Amino acid sequence: MADELVFLAKATESLAGAESEFANNRYNNCANRCYYACFQAGIAALIQAGIQPKSTHGQWGHDFVQAEFIGQLINRRKLYPPTMRNVLEQTFALRQIADYRREEVSQTQVDRALRRASLFVETIAREGKTE
After folding, report:
1. 54 class by beta-carbon count within 10 Å (0-12 exposed, 13-18 middle, 19+ buried)
2. 62-89 pLDDT tens trace
3. Are 91 and 116 in contact (CB under 8 A)?
4. What is the assigned CATH class of domain 3-54+80-130?
5. Contact indicator for 66, 95 with CB cutoff of 8 Å
6. What pLDDT score was predicted for residue 57?
7. 3-state secondary structure 47-102
8. What is residue 60's predicted lDDT score, i.e. its pLDDT?
9. Residue 42 and residue 88 in contact, taking contact as beta carbons nearer than 8 Å
């Protein structure tokens, strides 16, 4: 299986996990899965566009994926709509709260994150099939 398909499958699995966690009122874990669905879909999109991580170990850094997705795939190549520009950053910020802060994320916050993540993953899956 091609690398981009592996990461797209992971993104789809993370999104399904987020939906399950939301349905079971586990909002912090839902926020975590929403972010990883977007992160993994972002990696798939970068691979599809021929962009690889610069690290010697081939690891995908969170900052790298965000910067390259926005800079290369949205701003420069115009492969994805500008409405996707803030999704990685917003879901990352919510995941930081869910995973590392004393405060809890709310149902409303993760409902919005889940909708953004679903659209993000679906758009990347759709665009990847047409190229």
Report:
1. exposed
2. 999 999 999 999 999 999 999 999 999 9
3. yes
4. mainly alpha
5. no
6. 83
7. HHCCCCCCCCCCCCCHHHHHHHHHHHHHHHCCCCCHHHCCHHHHHHHHHHHHHHCC
8. 96
9. yes
